[in-house]
Amino acid sequence: MPTDAQIAGGHKANLNNPNTSKESKENSQKILDNEFNGGDVPKASDTKDKNPGNVAGGLKATMKNPNVSDEAKKSAEERLNNM
């Protein structure tokens, strides 16, 4: 089941999508305003409900990806070392 943050995120994405209708955007804005405090919903923390093995695997993949900047690789390495 999606979280409130995921639902609100979908509506926010709809508002910024040039391929959706005006009516759809109005509906998403109405839902955000009425049910999600304008889209201001709490986010999941960096590690809450995440599998640490998957997080570590993603960080390792970032460090080996040639399309990732050196700065991002260094950040991933630091995060991995702090786990």
Automatic annotation (TrEMBL):
Q: Where is the composition biased (Basic and acidic residues)?
A: 70-83
Output the superkingdom of the source species: Eukaryota
In the UniProt record, the signal sequence range is none
A Pfam family found in this protein is: Con-6
Outline the segment boundaries, as ranges, of region: Disordered.
1-83
- Any Gene Ontology CC annotation: cytoplasm
Its name, as the record gives it, is Conidiation-specific protein 6
